[in-house]
Each structure stands twice: as structure tokens, then as C-alpha cells.
Amino acid sequence: MGNSYAGQLKSARFEEALHNSIEASLRCSSVVPRPIFSQLYLDPDQHPFSSAANEMEDDEDDEEMSESNSPPIPYSQKPAPEGSCTTDGFCQAGKDLRLVSLCMEQIDIPAGFLLVGAKSPNLPEHILVCAVDKRFLPDDHGKNALLGFSGNCIGCGERGFRYFTEFSNHINLKLTTQPKKQKHLKYYLVRSSQGVLSKGPLICWKVIWKGPQSVSPC
């Protein structure tokens, strides 16, 4: 079973590296993406079979649980279109995306989409509300998320974002490392019986290997 799991893990890492390389090539005109071979085999300290998982706090930015151990890919954000809003917490159309402002709003989303919370490094105390196609989100075991991204801006209503890079630009995350949905999409959002939208459980992006059974860090 160990060999089977190792093969699945290597395949998953190859798919992730390939996706990151393609997206970096398409979206970053000033940065040369790292070769896939070096991402897979030349990264130091790759230890996929961890014997224990550190406990995660709700507000803890533990990147090892939400993305691979690969070194951050340098990222030069594309300048916002002329006249666009660049205020943290707002999309480029100037619409407020902060959960604290939208918690009582009725938000219409397409069938098959879920409301999730994104974290901006410039607004650590806030959660930004996003609509994401659930096929690109993991199940309760941290598996079966399709590669890539499909999301909508719930502020201005713009739909059809096919790359998390362009989506992160649109919602003004202002990142300095390669945008990854696993790193910045943090929480499911849930609505209470009183109709208040609030932070729900962590999105479980990864499974920690602990011998015969894999255990979710979430």
C-alpha cells in the first residue's frame, strides 16, 4: 500500500507542478517559471510521509498544510487596469468583499458553486467572500479537487475566472508569491438559522500520511 500511495503522491505533485508552470507561463510576463523537473526532484527537504501533524488553529496561516513544501515561486502581479479600484478588501470594480460587510446580504450563486472565504496578506483580520465551483475544492478527506480554478466575483458579479491568478488580481489580494488556491482559499462560509453568513470549517486541502491510514489535518 505504501508504494501505491507514493505513486499517487508523485503523480499529484507532477500535476501540481505542471499546472503551476503552465499558469506562470501564461500569466507572468516578467518571471521565468521554474522547470518542472527542478520542482519535482531538486527541492530540498521534501518529506511527504510525516509521522505527525501539527495542530491547526482557525486563524493560523500554516502554509505546509495548505500547499506543497516547494519554495515560493516569485510573482510579479499584473498591474490593475487603469481606473480600477485597488483598495484592500474590495474588487477592482470597487465592490466590498469583506465578510463583515456582507454577512447579512443574500448572495445568489450558480448551481454547483459554494461561498468560501479568502485571506489577504494585507487584511489578516478580514475574510473575503468568493464564489467557487465546488469541483475545484476538496472533499472532506482533502481529495478529489480538480486541478485549476473556476470562480466568480460576488462583489461586481463578474463570472468565469478560469485562473486563480487572474481572480486574485481582481479581488486585490496583492500577492508577492505565486497565487495558489490552496494557500489563500481558507474557509467554507455557512449561513446560520438567523440568516447570518459566517466563517465555517477550514477547507481541507491536504492529507497527512500516518502509516496505514491517512489523517486529515483539518
Automatic annotation (TrEMBL):
Residues 57-206 form the GREB1 N-terminal domain. Transmembrane segments: none annotated. Residues 48-81 are annotated as: Disordered. Pfam families: GREB1_N. Residues 55-66 have a biased composition (Acidic residues). PANTHER family: GREB1-LIKE PROTEIN (PTHR15720:SF12), GREB1-RELATED (PTHR15720). This is GREB1 like retinoic acid receptor coactivator. It comes from Loxodonta africana.
